[in-house]
Amino acid sequence: MSATDVLLAERAALCDSLAKYGAEAPTLCEGWLTADLAAHLLAREKRPDAGLGIVLPGPFAKHMQRVMEQYKAKGYDVMVQELRHGPPKYFRVGPMAALNVGENWIHNEDVRRANGEAPRPADPEVDDILWNSLKTGALVARRKLKSVGLVLKQPDGQERVVKQADPLVTVVGAPGELVLFMAGRKEAADVHLDGPHEAVAIVLATKLGI
Question: 17, 68, 111, 158: least CB-packed within 10 angstroms?
Answer without folding.
Answer: 158
